[in-house]
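ok, trying the design again with the full structure, not the truncated one.
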């Protein structure tokens, strides 16, 4: 079936058509006794594909694959110059790619196959299928594949290159926090970056009223009247009744503040929610002069400012406080965050959030209560993927925007001559993977050019290596024609 996506490019609306396909993969790639399979969804676009062109392969993240395809315009922008086939693969347990259908979340026995290494194995199988069925050239049976991914998808893209270098010639890993694990990155760094984004959004320090708000929320909601008042002021779909409800509200509020920093893009977007350009700035503008007001006025002001995120389209009637990004698979990601993707976070007096120490034992116990699984080895992804010992890897570009709190766990300096780091000072969460826009800062334009140069090198090296026998036995004319194609 067809899916149309519309992307904004320099003021022009470009429409791209994907074909939605399904590929059968094992439920368990690492067992010889489990023969169960399921259908993994992927999107494919061959509009730009010519002859023996490469495959640009997006390693899907924690959500429906359409959402990521529609927010990764960079791949569409550069596909014509590479004659590339575009493929966006959905991550198992998200969107339609459910190994056990509606029962996929029913119990730990079914959810236990939701791991990054199982997802990588899905991608390797799909890539092999695409390579062996999509080559239209006499040069070889396989075409080169470049992996792309942002955020968790960027982690997967880099790990795909590290663990399966025969499957992909290189990886563009944007906003990939591969070092946001215990013992690799201080737990307080993430929230410090969020705080800095709010401090510098306007001349007035927007972090000051926010840092005050947590205690105010706790005080006002300490009785039933206060809970009812705040429920009305913040237009909650379900009124606050218990202390647990208040905790949920605080977490929801915190996540929205973080999300606005993540998607603090220089133009309107709808990735996590419909938002204006620089949503943090818009939020802080509504908070102007709220530093010295009384408690109720402060929370009333914050409630109005939150509508930048919750009701920018003026169509939301009330707020559901256990949901902050409907397009993402929050339940499935919560399971992953309880098993192998445990990324320590904490808050201290040095940031604007309510103080919250990192306590692995409590975290693990809460996960057990919710999912029936208890992780006792938080270092699992470090053992699986190498942690900071990745100097043996090759052909990876890690890019990070300094407005993005996830850069706290990102690779911010070159690891080797072929594992590079790109810093985008004005960039939010994987801004460089978004499509070209007239409001792009110069730093993201330069980052994309760096990506293109590396992709061109990886593909050219692959073609020359793969087809050296062809080059040895062909005429000069054929050699020049071939070289022009791969360097287009």
């Amino acid at each position: 079936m067809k899916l149309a996506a519309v992307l904004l490019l320099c003021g022009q609306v470009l429409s791209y058509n994907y074909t939605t396909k399904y590929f059968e993969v094992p439920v368990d790639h690492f067992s010889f006794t489990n023969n169960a399979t399921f259908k993994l969804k992927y999107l494919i676009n061959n509009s730009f594909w010519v002859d023996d062109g490469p495959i640009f392969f997006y390693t899907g993240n924690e959500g429906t694959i359409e959402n990521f395809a529609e927010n990764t315009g960079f791949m569409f922008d550069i596909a014509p110059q590479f004659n590339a086939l575009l493929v966006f693969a959905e991550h198992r347990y998200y969107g339609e790619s459910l190994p056990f259908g509606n029962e996929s979340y029913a119990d730990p026995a079914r959810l236990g196959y939701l791991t990054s290494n199982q997802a990588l194995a899905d991608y390797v199988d799909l890539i092999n299928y695409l390579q062996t069925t999509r080559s239209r050239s006499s040069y070889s049976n396989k075409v080169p594949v470049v992996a792309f991914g942002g955020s968790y998808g960027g982690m997967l893209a880099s790990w795909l290159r590290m663990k399966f270098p025969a499957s992909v010639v290189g990886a563009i890993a944007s906003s990939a926090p591969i070092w946001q694990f215990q013992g690799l990155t201080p737990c307080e760094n993430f929230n410090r970056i969020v705080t800095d984004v709010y401090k510098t959004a306007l001349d007035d320090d927007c972090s000051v009223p926010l840092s005050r708000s947590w205690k105010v929320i706790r005080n006002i909601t300490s009785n039933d009247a206060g809970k009812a008042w705040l429920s009305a002021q913040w237009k909650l779909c379900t009124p606050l009744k218990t202390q647990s409800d208040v905790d949920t509200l605080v977490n929801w509020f915190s996540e929205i503040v973080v999300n606005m920093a993540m998607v603090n893009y220089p133009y309107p977007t709808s990735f996590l929610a419909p938002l204006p350009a620089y949503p943090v700035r818009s939020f802080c503008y509504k908070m102007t002069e709220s530093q010295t007001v009384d408690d109720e006025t402060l929370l009333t002001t914050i409630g109005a400012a939150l509508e930048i995120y919750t009701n920018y389209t003026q169509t939301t009637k009330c707020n559901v406080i256990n949901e902050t990004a409907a397009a993402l698979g929050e339940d499935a990601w919560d399971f992953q965050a309880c098993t192998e993707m445990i990324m320590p976070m904490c808050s201290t007096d040095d940031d604007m959030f309510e103080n919250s120490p990192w306590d692995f034992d409590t975290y693990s116990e809460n996960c057990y209560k919710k999912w029936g699984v208890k992780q006792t080895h938080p270092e699992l992804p470090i053992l699986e993927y190498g942690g900071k010992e990745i100097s043996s890897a090759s052909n990876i570009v890690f890019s990070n925007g300094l407005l993005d709190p996830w850069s706290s766990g990102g690779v911010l300096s070159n690891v080797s001559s072929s594992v590079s780091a790109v810093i985008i000072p004005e960039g939010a969460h994987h801004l460089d993977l978004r499509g070209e826009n007239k409001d792009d800062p110069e730093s993201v334009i330069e980052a994309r050019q760096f990506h293109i140069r590396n992709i061109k090198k990886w593909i050219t090296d692959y073609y020359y290596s793969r087809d050296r026998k062809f080059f040895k036995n062909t005429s000069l004319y054929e050699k020049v024609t071939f070289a022009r194609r791969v360097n287009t």
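Keeping the full-length input from now on. The first helix runs from residue 65 to 69.
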